[in-house]
């Protein structure tokens, strides 16, 4: 099987490529990645001999057409992904998430190629803190930020290409991922690397916002299950019952790093900050038999901290620029 992985030099995509090389030796992987600030060929270094990396933009119709013509399936991770960046400058989000997904869809339509589109639970908006209700496949879309609005738009394009053009596609909407190779702009790696570089960790607002954490390996195992046995046209929600508020995650992380759990700063809150995300993953578990292997968040977090300690050369070149950006925003 020949597999085209867009965004395979980013956090989740690189972990997906590593797992594919390890666990599916019969699959030939091509990565298409623009190597933006969020992508790095370093993340693919351990599998460099097993993977073809094409440096290019998913909005480049000619290039996408050529690569799709040479493949049997596409797993589409490429996106602009950081909510704070989308609030500061949304344009790249429209280009990559909307126009880029459109470009991929047109190519798979022309060549009759199977597509799996990777999306986020943020398309559903947020949930109240004081009600145990969770997102399901039937929850109406209600995105809050330019990031989630452009991901919602990309999901809608996929749904309409399935209905109108019989494109063979599935969609997954996953909750917050953590694990190795995540950019230091994101919550967990930012705090770990703040501690490792002698900075104080930064919590937005009071830290009452809840996220539903899943280890990246479990997300990617679900993507493989859906690619192999998912029902065409369906949306699957991926989550691992990992709800925690940000304050709790911060305090746990500091304790695991032998710091005082209150040794952090409260900084300016995010505009429009979503209160709570929570996924009901029943369909994925019941129909495709998926279960998360990392069911202990604290040990997954400890392993992630160890990875950042051991791989400073991967994240160190990104850190100062990332913090300079946050400083400009008083965050
Ligand atoms: P990331 O920002 O770490 O990586 C994105 C990758 O896409 C980078 O390698 C980047 O270079 C590449 N890219 C960006 N624009 C491109 C373009 N125009 N053409 C080609 N490549 C381009 O993101 P991630 O966290 O790995 O997320 C991957 C996917 O998973 C995204 O679609 C995201 O919406 C989705 N998702 C992420 C999470 C999460 O917690 N990180 C949760 C649910 C869903
Ligand atoms: O320094 C910080 N302090 C802080 O309190 C940062 C960077 C974040 N936060 C808060 C904001 C969120 O409530 O932590 C929470 C997690 O923040 P992010 O890591 O920016 O993730 P989030 O906005 O929840 O979105 C993530 O999950 C869904 C990914 O970035 C998306 O790509 C994915 O779709």
From TrEMBL:
It is an enzyme of class 4 (lyase). It comes from Mycolicibacterium hodleri. The keyword Protease does not apply. Keywords: Lyase, NAD. Its EC number is 4.2.1.46. One of its GO terms (biological process) is nucleotide-sugar metabolic process. This is dTDP-glucose 4,6-dehydratase. Belongs to the NAD(P)-dependent epimerase/dehydratase family. dTDP-glucose dehydratase subfamily. Its cofactor is NAD(+). One of its GO terms (molecular function) is dTDP-glucose 4,6-dehydratase activity. It catalyses: dTDP-alpha-D-glucose = dTDP-4-dehydro-6-deoxy-alpha-D-glucose + H2O. CDD domains: dTDP_GD_SDR_e. The lineage of its organism: Bacteria, Bacillati, Actinomycetota, Actinomycetes, Mycobacteriales. Residues 4-300 form the NAD(P)-binding domain.
């Amino acid at each position: 099987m020949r597999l085209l992985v867009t965004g395979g030099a980013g956090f989740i995509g690189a972990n997906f490529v590593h797992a594919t090389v390890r666990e599916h030796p019969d699959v030939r992987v091509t990565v298409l990645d623009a190597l933006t600030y969020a992508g790095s060929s370093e993340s693919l270094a351990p599998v460099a001999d097993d993977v073809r990396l094409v440096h290019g933009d998913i909005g480049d119709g000619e290039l996408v057409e050529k690569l799709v013509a040479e493949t049997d399936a596409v797993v589409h991770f490429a996106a602009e992904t950081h909510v704070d960046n989308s609030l500061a400058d949304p344009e790249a989000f429209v280009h990559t998430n909307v126009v880029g997904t459109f470009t991929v869809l047109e190519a798979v339509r022309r060549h009759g190629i199977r597509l799996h589109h990777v999306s986020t639970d943020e398309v559903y908006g947020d949930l109240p803190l004081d009600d145990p209700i969770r997102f399901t496949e039937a929850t109406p879309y209600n995105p809050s930020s330019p990031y989630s609005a452009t991901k919602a738009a990309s999901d809608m394009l996929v749904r309409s290409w399935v209905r109108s053009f019989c494109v063979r596609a599935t969609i997954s909407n996953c909750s917050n991922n953590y694990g190795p190779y995540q950019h230091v702009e994101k919550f967990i790696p930012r705090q770990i690397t703040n501690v490792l570089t002698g900075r104080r960790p930064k919590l937005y607002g009071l830290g009452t916002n809840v996220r539903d954490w899943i280890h990246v390996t479990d997300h990617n195992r679900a993507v493989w299950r859906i690619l192999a046995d998912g029902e065409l046209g369906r949306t699957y929600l991926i989550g691992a019952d990992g709800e925690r508020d940000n304050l709790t995650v911060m305090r746990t992380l500091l304790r695991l790093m032998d710091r005082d759990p209150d040794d952090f700063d409260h900084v300016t809150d995010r505009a429009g900050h979503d209160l709570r995300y929570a996924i009901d993953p029943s369909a994925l578990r019941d129909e495709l038999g998926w279960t998360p292997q990392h069911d202990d968040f604290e040990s997954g977090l400890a392993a992630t901290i160890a990875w950042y300690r051991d791989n400073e050369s991967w994240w160190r070149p990104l850190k100062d620029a990332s913090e300079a950006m946050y400083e400009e925003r008083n965050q």
